[in-house]
Design brief:
alpha/beta; Arc Repressor Mutant, subunit A; Rossmann fold; 3 domains; seven-stranded mixed β-sheet; six-stranded parallel β-sheet; 12 helices; globular
Length: 391
C-alpha cells in the first residue's frame, strides 16, 4: 500500500513538487539533469578541464528552473566530478589518484548485518567513491570463531584499516551499554593517532548532552521524534508510549527528546513511566502484555521499524487492533514497513543526500591543511503516514 499522506517533507522535496519538477511522478527533474550531465561527462563529450555551460544556459537547455539545475550541479560537485569557483565558472574535474577510504561499522559482523539504513548509506557512499575514483573499503568485525573481548576486536579491525593505508574513515558508531560506551572513542583515538581523518556517521560517539570533537553527519532524529509524536497527538492520542534503546545512542536519545518536545508543546506533558527501554530480543509477548497493562497506551512510538513490527505482531496475538485500539509508528521506513498486514507509519531517512554530505565532510578533512571545525550536520527526515496510525 502506498502512503496516503505525508507530513513534514524536507523543504527541498516540497520545492520540487511546488515547481512541478517531478517528472512522470517518479524521477525528480534535478535527477534527470544530473543523469544527463553525468552521461555526457562519462562519454567524453565534456573532457576534464572543460568549462560547462552556465546554469542559465543549462536551465534553457533542459527546460528546467535555475534551482533544479543548481541542485544537479551541486550533486555532481559532491561526487567530485566538477570544480566550481565564484566568477570562474564550472569545470569538469581533472582525474586524480583515488583516496583510500573506509566505512567502519563495528556493530556488524558482515555486510549483511549493516541493516537497512546502514546498507543504504554504504551503497550511496560506494556510488560517490566510484565516480571520484576512490577506493572504498567496508570494514566490519568479521565472523569470530572465539568471541574475544569486544574492545580487542574493535581495535584489531582498526589496526587493519591503519595497515591498509586508508586516508579517511566514515565511522559508524556501535550502540553500547553505558559502562563500555567509551569503546567508540578508543577506536577514533587510534585512527586519529595514525593520521587518519575521521567523521562520525549517523550518530555521535557519545550520548547527549555530550558532544565529541568529531565532525558528525546525522539525521535530524529529534525532528523525526517530534513529527511522529505530533501526528499521533493530532490523531487524538494522549497516552503515548516510547519504546527506546537500553544502550548509549545519540540517535535514539534524540528521537526520544523529539517525542518529549511534542508532548510538552501539546500541554500533555511527558511522563517518564511511559518510556520503556528494551533490546530487540526483549520484545516478546510478555513485554507487550506488561506494556499494555502498566501504561494502557493508545499509541506506541518505537525507536525503529523492527521494534514496531514485533510489537504489532504480539499485540495482534493479544487481540489488539492496530491502528484502531492502539496506533503504532517506527523509524527507518524499511521495505517491510509498507508490506506489514497493517502498513506501518514511520520516519524516512533519505540516504543519497546523506552520503554526499558525508563525503564532502571527509574530503574536506583529508585535503585541507586547516580542516573545518568539528560540529554536527543534520539532514532532514520525512514522516510517512500509513494505516498503523489510523490512515
Amino acid at each position: 500500500m502506498n502512503p496516503r499522506s505525508v507530513r513534514g517533507k524536507p523543504a527541498l522535496v516540497l520545492a520540487e513538487i511546488a515547481d512541478g519538477e517531478i517528472a512522470d511522478g517518479r524521477k525528480p527533474r534535478h535527477r534527470e539533469v544530473f543523469d544527463t550531465l553525468l552521461s555526457e561527462i562519462a562519454s567524453g563529450r565534456f573532457q576534464p578541464g572543460d568549462r560547462l555551460p552556465t546554469e542559465a544556459e543549462l536551465a534553457k537547455k533542459f527546460s528546467a528552473s535555475r534551482s533544479t539545475v543548481s541542485r544537479a550541479m551541486r550533486d555532481l560537485k559532491g561526487r567530485g566530478l566538477l570544480n566550481r569557483a565564484r566568477g570562474g565558472g564550472t569545470h569538469v574535474a581533472k582525474s586524480k589518484s583515488g583516496n583510500r577510504v573506509a566505512l567502519f561499522a563495528p556493530f556488524a559482523d558482515t555486510a549483511a548485518h549493516l541493516g537497512y539504513i546502514g546498507g543504504q548509506i554504504h551503497a550511496h557512499l560506494s556510488e560517490v567513491a566510484s565516480w571520484r575514483t576512490d577506493h572504498l573499503r567496508l570494514q566490519t568485525m568479521g565472523r569470530a570463531i572465539h568471541r574475544e573481548d569486544l574492545l580487542d576486536r574493535m581495535l584489531a579491525a582498526t589496526q587493519v584499516l591503519i595497515e591498509q593505508g586508508v586516508n579517511g574513515v566514515f565511522y559508524y558508531p556501535v550502540e553500547l551499554p553505558q559502562n563500555i560506551a567509551h569503546y567508540n572513542a578508543a577506536v577514533v583515538e587510534r585512527l586519529e593517532a595514525a593520521g587518519i581523518a575521521v567523521i562520525a556517521v549517523d550518530r555521535d560517539i557519545v550520548a547527549f548532552p555530550q558532544r565529541s570533537k568529531l565532525s558528525v553527519v546525522s539525521y535530524d532524529n529529534r525532528r523525526g521524534g517530534f513529527l511522529v509524536t505530533d501526528h499521533l497527538i493530532q490523531r487524538g492520542c494522549r497516552r503515548i508510549v516510547f519504546v527506546g534503546s537500553p544502550f548509549v545512542s545519540s540517535a535514539a536519545s534524540d528521537r526520544m527528546r523529539g517525542y518529549f518536545d511534542a508532548l510538552e508543546e501539546s500541554d500533555i506533558g511527558h511522563d517518564r513511566s511511559m518510556v520503556f527501554r528494551a533490546d530487540l530480543p526483549d520484545i516478546d509477548v510478555d513485554f507487550c502484555r506488561r506494556l499494555m497493562e502498566t501504561a494502557k497506551p493508545d499509541a506506541i512510538v518505537c525507536k525503529m521499524d523492527h521494534y514496531a513490527a514485533l510489537i504489532c505482531r504480539h499485540l495482534v496475538n493479544l487481540g489488539v487492533k492496530i491502528g484502531d485500539q492502539v496506533k503504532v509508528a517506527g523509524f527507518d521506513d524499511e521495505p517491510f514497513a509498507e508490506m506489514l498486514p497493517v502498513p506501518l507509519t514511520t520516519i524516512r531517512f533519505p540516504a543519497d543526500p546523506f552520503a554526499q554530505v558525508c563525503y564532502e565532510r571527509l574530503v574536506a578533512q583529508m585535503t585541507s591543511d586547516s580542516p573545518p571545525p568539528a560540529g554536527m550536520t543534520l539532514m532532514d527526515v520525512e514522516l510517512v503516514v500509513r494505516d498503523s496510525t489510523g490512515g
